[in-house]
Amino acid sequence: MERGKMNIAVIGAGYVGMTTSVAFAAYGHHVVVVEHNEEKVKLLSQGYLPFYEAGMEDMMKQQLKLGQLSFTTSIRKSLKQAEYVFITVGTPSLPSGEADLSFVEQVAQSIGTFIDDYKIIIMKSTVPVGTGKKVQEIIFSQLQKRNVDIPFDLVSNPEFLREGRALKDALQPDRIILGCENDRAKMKMNSLYNDFQSKILFTALNDAEMIKYASNTFLATKISFVNELARLCENLNVDITNVAKGMGLDKRIGPDFLQAGIGFGGSCFPKDIKALLAFSAANHVPFQILQAVQSVNDSQVEWFMTNVANTLGDLTNKHIAILGLTFKPETDDIREASSLRVIEYLIQNHAIVSAYDPKGIDQIKRIFPMINYAQTPIGAIEGADAIILVTEWKELIHLDWEAIKLKVNKPVIFDGRNALDRNRLVDLGYTYIGVGVKGNI
Length: 441
Description:
The protein has helices spanning 15-26, 38-45, 56-66, 75-81, 102-114, 131-146, 166-171, 183-192, 205-236, 240-248, 269-282, 288-312, 338-348, 361-367, 377-381, 394-397, 401-404, 422-427; strands spanning 7-11, 30-34, 69-72, 84-87, 119-123, 152-156, 175-179, 199-203, 319-323, 352-356, 372-373, 386-389, 412-415, 431-433. The chain is an alpha/beta fold. It starts with 6 loop residues before the first strand and ends in an 8-residue tail after the last strand.
């Protein structure tokens, strides 16, 4: 192996695991990815990525061709050569809101069963505070059962990937958080990240685990704050976009995550809020701000759709076109997507629904097979009594709205992301309704 390049095992071929693997392979390290599903391993080995993320599949194919990346179903095999072992399995929400750590615990048992020399084990999965200590105990327990004394270090290295920009975030992270317990682990992690031009913060294990939850839930707080403020602005005839712009000019606040809209979704924010609320309740510390953040987001779509109903009147047999189905642009992820609630509301109110999305149709179709799906935006919009923009894909923002006006039954647009040029739309004769903005109502 080339000097300075590491042997890495990544256990879990989901979103985080694949992004982590491709990034380290791109830096020249040798990465083997462990996935228990044989069919998935076969597809990955052929260069097929089971989800969409801009640029990911092409880079994965490149690393496969170079021999930097490989896949296996065997944890034992992957551990044989690897010095660094990433745990990237899922931690979905339980009915209680707590993170389900069963997959993490299974991996920890396997590591304790199969390691035969020093490893540095890196927790990349999002886990509650104290999980690292628990994983250590599980590995120690398995080693004791084998009656062997094999050294290892455990590091917490949370991910901060933005879907749609995940590959860039993995290759060029704005910060790297490393929860380490000794100098040996710090030295090993410094070597691993030697080629990364990023700020590194070393902390205790527990600190690193909390940083992940604190970061995501704080960003969600900014979104819910501006969304609730938008409701007030609408009642006062104040433009939330100008308010947010003025707030964002304050360096202490910043402009990011102050875009009023129809609510946040995805695999991270909702899950991490539930987990932190459950964790705080278990520790008898009510997290009142976070409860409000969740409450605002849970009600944002209903508030927005009430505006739709108030504007259009009875929705029965009205043709509503939905543009955008994924929870954000540049991904095919529909988890906790606002479109799910929008569609459900329209169906319950007996509207005729058509929809378009560049990447999310197949997933949504499994949930709502009864609505009409189009292969183009025009196909969804034609003959519509109103258009709802739910996801701000660039191709949707830059549609030829002048030509579209000739295709619709009524030129009415509900902009769920405040992403469209409302002044131009109003000039073209559209009725425009945004989120907390002045429109042509």
